[in-house]
Q: What sequence folds into this?
């Protein structure tokens, strides 16, 4: 069982930056793939970014590529999402997710993740 807790959300202006953090419980963090998803009001939860167990491989949604950076610190059981050049359309609740290592390269759908945090609100004003 993995418990996840996000932090770092807030209200910012377009063009600003934010860094989200997600701390995981347990001693098996490094054996989990980590991902970030987001959900805007009235929309489905969508993939944002994912990172493999070591942090050496990452994959991004096209809408955030070159603006967002996912990273992890296995010694601190923490995954980060650095968000730069924020846009109003980035406004959403951001969720951290985890899954055990599998045979795939990247995991980009919510159904592929077993553990979820409670979410943190990010609001970007224009």
A:
């Amino acid at each position: 069982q993995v418990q996840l807790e996000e932090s770092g959300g807030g209200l910012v202006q377009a063009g600003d930056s934010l860094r989200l953090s997600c701390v995981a419980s347990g001693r098996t963090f490094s054996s989990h793939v980590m991902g970030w998803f987001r959900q805007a009001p009235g929309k489905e939860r969508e993939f944002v970014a994912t990172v493999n167990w070591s942090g050496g491989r990452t994959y991004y949604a096209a809408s955030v590529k070159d603006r967002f950076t996912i990273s992890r610190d296995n010694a601190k059981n923490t995954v980060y999402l650095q968000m730069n050049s924020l846009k109003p359309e980035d406004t959403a609740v951001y969720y951290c997710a985890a899954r055990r290592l599998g045979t795939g390269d990247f995991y980009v759908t919510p159904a592929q993740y077993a553990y979820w945090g409670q979410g943190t609100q990010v609001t970007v004003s224009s």
Observations:
- The chain has a mean pLDDT of 96.
- The two ends are 40 Å apart (CA to CA).
